[in-house]
Amino acid sequence: MCFAEKCLLNEIIRKSIVVDNIIIIAVIALGGLGLVSAVILFFVAKKFKVFEDPKIDEVEEALPSANCGGCGYPGCRAFAEAAVKAAKENHSLEGLNCPVGGNEVMQTVGQLLGIEVEQQEPLIAVVRCNGSYANSPGKVKYEGVSSCAFTHALFTGEGGCQYGCLGHGDCVDACDFDAIHMNPETGLPVVNDKCTACGACVEACPRDIIELRKKGPKDRRIFVSCVNKEKGGPAKKNCAVACIGCGKCEKVCKFDAITITSFLAYIDFNKCTLCRKCVEVCPTDAIWEVNFKPRKPKPLEPEGSVARKTVVAKPADAEKVKSAEEKPKPEDKH
Amino acid sequence: MGVLKTFVLGGVHPEENKLSSNVPIEALPVPEQAIVPLGQNLGAPSKPVVSKGDKVKTGQLIAEAGGFISANIHSPVSGTVLKIDNVVDMTGFRRPGIVIKTEGDEWDESIDRSDDLITEVDYSAEEIIEKIKQAGIVGMGGATFPTYVKLMPPPGKKADHVIINGVECEPYLTSDHRLMLEKGQEIIIGTKILMKALKVAQAIIGIESNKPDAINHLTELTKNEENIKVVPLKVKYPQGGEKQLIKAVLNREVPSGKLPIEVGCVVQNVGTTFAVYEAVQKNKPLFERVVTVTGKSVKKPSNFLARIGTPISKLVDAAEGLPDDTGKIIGGGPMMGKALPSLDVPVVKGASGILLMREQESHRKPESPCIRCSKCTNVCPMGLEPFLLAKASKIGKYDIAENEKVMDCIECGSCQYICPASIPLLDYLRLGKNKVGNIIRNRKKK
Predict the structure, then answer these.
(1) For labelling alongside B411, which of A231, B60, B212, B432 has CA 20 to 30 A away?
(2) Nearest CA to CA, how far is A61 from chain B (Å)?
(3) Tell me: the pLDDT tens digits for A34-87?
(4) Burial class (CB in 10 A: 0-12, 13-18, 19+), B306
């Protein structure tokens, strides 16, 4: 017994010594390795040091971190780098604008970089189509994939207008800010005030219907809500509120803000003074005024012209639309 | 006959429904007004050479090719040019076109209107290609690729086989079938012309075995021709695709992203071959074609020889009217055709048929989730994975779609046909092809 106990004891002592040795060797080896690596890394870091302007971090901090790409750079970091570089080289931030942050953020960025930043007019996405279910009734029925990009290549759209909104909501999918939604009653997208004018929806729309326009004072805007480049007849056939290129608005505008190219009026928002004369003369109600106070009944002709519009133009359209609707209608591939 | 040849990968066999295969081709009266869209071919649209008020004769050049891959267009009627304006084309889009008001039917003097068969080919290869180019011939199977471009192989490439595509694998359509039966001799001469133009010694006419009369007729006609072989093929869709047909008749595989010339083949449709005969031997440009009007409820399914520019409503009227239960009008066959938005659209060079689908057949089934049954992968004739490509296209991962060769898709629709979950795979694939195509083009620009 005694012998056996002694043996066991010896065994344990021997083993523990071996274990101790292993631990010590490991500590020394790894410690040494670490030390050598640290020395190498220290010198490597010294040798290959990349200087990064600390201002980039500061600018990035000031940005909204939405990483939406609205500025044209892949994310806020890239924008910050570009801003710091531009400030250093050109001493200006021209061409650089964070649409999401707006003037406030750009002011902060300017302060950080010690540069005066020009005030930019805030922009907003504007949907330039009013081909709702009522204005441009469906002539065919589509059953395929719900994607504007696909249907744009396939056919004109249910209403028959080859320039108009397809209503499948590629713009809604593209929006990172919850700022654009489909209105189920009209089948058209509606932009709300969360819009930061990042331009994602403009990119997503295969028909270039959405445009970034000036937000305007008190959110008041006037724009042509149509992008149809057809002559009056075919345009009107598909949509009751299409721009027919009659030129009345161009004549009435005193500020040369309206131009007509290929039967389509376009209002330059930099020249427009929001006088609303064009809205009154438009025979098809294609020009929209947004967020204005309702007109007072007293002023000279506007009242009369509005009344004329509703009395004459509308029923004729309705009839036209009806006759178009009666034609054979099937649609969609197998 | 033994085992019939066919392609290896995938394929489906939809109900054939060749309702009009016994109906002889009937020439349709000249329309009162011809609407000729300028973009009838793949590639650049043509440029008009006439102006409003001009008098034109049937067969006179009215628009010339607008680029290398483009084709001439000739007046299908004689009369006065009413306007050069936007006209509704097959997709419902309004695009530039020429509208001609018909006055009589006076043909251009250079056209040989007799029925005599001219068997001798007296022209050199260059002359033939020039004639085909002048006649504005495009692939009449539906792809509308200018034929003369196919006849000029790029430097360093040499064709050794001309393959005449008489497969007509699309259900319902019978225009090529009737053409082979009624214009067999012309097609054989057309084949010889194509062989001469390409300086090749061998030609193969591929016909699916559901057209035994056409196979027998052409075999009989080529009895004494050593170089022209008629090959009966097993019925399988999409055998009419160039790459599938080459695989079926010659067991050669066209590499991904390459043209058939890579394996020494040039494939031409029988309709095109007939047009080539007429252009070279009779000086007749392409201004009319055979169009099948068919459908289960159509009273008189027919094959019409119609002038380009004839409104489709005229064809439907000639087939005894639009059935009451029509749910969908398709330009082309049921597998690859596109629905037409109205009956006002004109017949174009690539229009092989008008299919009037019944209301109950025309609707899609509701889509359900993919259970990875892999039926689409099994039927894909290009060896792609449609479910994966569709998913990638759906969620916008176009880089995956590109790596998985979405551009190799021939849009045959077999995957969507077979899918038990009724997923619109082809729609997504077309979307993916469209997007990836744009990405590749932009990359090349840079």
Answers:
(1) B212
(2) 30
(3) 999 999 999 999 888 888 888 898 889 989 888 888 888 888 999 999 988 888
(4) buried
CATH of the domain at A95: 1.10.15.40
Is the predicted ipTM greater than 0.85, yes or no? no
Q: Kindly state whether residues B197 and B168 are assigned to the same domain.
A: yes
Residue B386 has pLDDT above 90, yes or no: yes
Nearest CB among A139, A327, A334 relative to B335 is that of: A334
Q: Are residues B269 and B316 in the same domain?
A: no
Looking at per-residue pLDDT, the higher value among A154 and A29 belongs to: A29
Domain count, chain A: 2
Q: Tell me what pLDDT residue A302 has.
A: 45
Half-sphere exposure of residue A133: CA atoms within 13 angstroms, side-chain side: 7
Q: Report pLDDT for A104.
A: 87
Average pLDDT, chain A: 83
**pTM score of the predicted model:** 0.81
CB B235 within 8 A of CB B209: yes
Band (A312; pLDDT cuts 50, 70, 90): very low
- B12 in reach of chain A (CB within 8 A): no
Best residue of A136, A156, A333 to probe chain B, by most B CBs closer than 10 Å: A333
Q: Which residue of B has its CA nearest to A324?
A: B342
> Which residues of B are less than 8 Å from A155 in CB distance?
91-93, 338-339, 341
The answer to whether B38 and B309 have CB atoms below 8 angstroms apart is no
The two tokens of residue B411 are 């849009």
- Interface of A to B at Cβ within 8 Å reads 139-140, 143-145, 147, 149-150, 153-156, 160, 162, 230-231, 234, 327-334
Q: How buried is residue A220: exposed, middle or buried, by Cβ count under 10 Å (0-12/13-18/19+)?
A: middle
Full residue range of the structural domain in which residue A65 is found: 54-113
Q: Do A330 and B328 touch (CB under 8 A)?
A: yes
Number of H helices, E strands in chain B: 14, 17
Q: Which residue among B91, B337, B431 sits closest to A155, beta carbon to beta carbon? A: B91
Does B175 lie in the same domain as B57?
Answer: no
- Shared-domain flag, residues B140 and B200: yes
Give B78 or A334, the one with higher predicted confidence. Answer: B78
CB contact (8 A) between residue A150 and residue B430: yes
pLDDT of residue A2: 67
pLDDT tens-digit readout, B179-219: 999 999 999 999 999 999 999 999 999 999 999 999 999 99
Q: Which of A150, A327, A331 sits opposite B339 (nearest CB)?
A: A331
B326, B341, B413 ranked by CB distance to A156: nearest? B341
Shortest alpha-carbon distance between residue A150 and chain B (Å): 5
What part of B 330-349 touches A (C-beta under 8 Å)?
A: 330, 334-335, 337-343
On whether both B146 and B166 belong to a single domain, the answer is yes
- In this predicted structure, what is the pLDDT of residue A88? 86
Q: Which of B130, B77, B86, B81 is nearest to B104 (CA)?
A: B77
B422 close to A (CB below 8 A): no
Identify all chain A residues contacting B328, using CB atoms and an 8 Å cutoff. Answer: 330-332
